[in-house]
Amino acid sequence: MANVTFSSPRMPKDLTVYAVAGDTQTLLSVAQAHKVPLDSECENGECGSCLLKVSVLSGKTPYGVAMTEKEKVVLRYAGKITKEQLELAETSDIPPPWRLGCQFIVRNEDILVTF
Fold this sequence. Notes:
By secondary structure, the chain is α+β, with helices and mostly antiparallel strands. It contains three helices and five strands. It has helices at 27-33, 69-77, 83-92; strands at 2-7, 15-19, 51-56, 98-100, 111-114. It has a five-stranded mixed sheet, with helices on one face.
């Protein structure tokens, strides 16, 4: 079970929602279900419009979340992931802070999502 807090200047205040971990919902689908104004165009990991920053609130190392090849490419071209961060994600399962909402699967950890 996870609490997901969305924070953006586009919202009047932060919104914390409950997401069932392990049901393979993307962060974008959680946002859409709660009417969070997160941009999205293709919803397929190709356009980068749902770019967001994910911070784990526990202070622990975040759970490894597999990144799709599409997401890696989009984050690299957007300048949101370094070569070192990409290597850590691929070899040590340490995800970078910038992700695509349509590709990020919610895990069993409380997170802050800023966009």
